[in-house]
Amino acid sequence: MKFKLENPPHQITAIHSVVEVFRGMEKNTYDNAHIEDIHSNVCSLSQQELMNNIKRIITKNNVPANQSCIIESNDACIEMETGTGKTYVYIKSMFELNKRYGFSKFIVVVPSIAIREGVKKSFEMTQDHFMDTYGKKARFFIYDSKKLDQIEQFSSSNAINVMIINIQAFNSRGADARRIYEE
User: Fold this and answer.
1) Are 102 and 25 in contact (CB under 8 A)?
2) C or N: which end of the chain has fewer Cβ atoms within 10 Å?
């Protein structure tokens, strides 16, 4: 069974807004984003350039001042209502960020195991759609402290890589759980 996915206007606006945060950035290449077998996402914009981009997006999207909270850090929180297609929006945003800026590493942190499994299923169900649209597939996996080879592949590959992890993996107390901080 093949799904036909559509992009309602609010999703197109959301995806465009995420991509525009990095407007003016130099595209990541092997030369500028690869150090000792690690291929990373490198942002060539200054903190001020990022803030200016975010402020421009907020103004363009007519977001009321009381609904936007700008904190000068390297974190961004993008919120959407339940049932508006958040998962599709962030998956498509990954492909757009890869296409425009060469970003290849993405980590999806979810609050529960059930949501983690739902996110994994969404990646599985949209693979062909994104292959048709972008000519590539994302490599995605659920973080498992016993499978560190997946982390190694995640860090060294320049393909689109997505680690799906639930917050409990950070809060665990066992020896295996501590590996996320050690390695």
Assistant:
1) no
2) N
- How would you classify the pairing of strands 161-166 and 105-110? parallel
Spell out the SS3 assignment of 100-155. HHCCCEEEEEECCHHHHHHHHHHHHHHHHHHHHHHCCCCEEEECCCCCHHHHHHHH
> At residue 83, does pLDDT exceed 70?
yes
Residues 6+ apart with CB under 8 A from 169: 143, 145, 177, 180
Closest residue by Cα to residue 91 from 112, 119, 116: 119
Residue 141: count of CB within 10 angstroms of its CB: 17
pTM (2 d.p.)? 0.88
What are the structure tokens assigned to 35, written together? 């150090």
6 vs 51: which has the higher pLDDT: 51
Tokens for 168? Answer: 């409990």
Which residue is it, tokens 């003016």? 24
> How much is the CA Rg of the chain, to the nearest whole Å?
17
CB 102 within 8 A of CB 149: no
- The pLDDT score that the predictor gives to residue 33 is 81
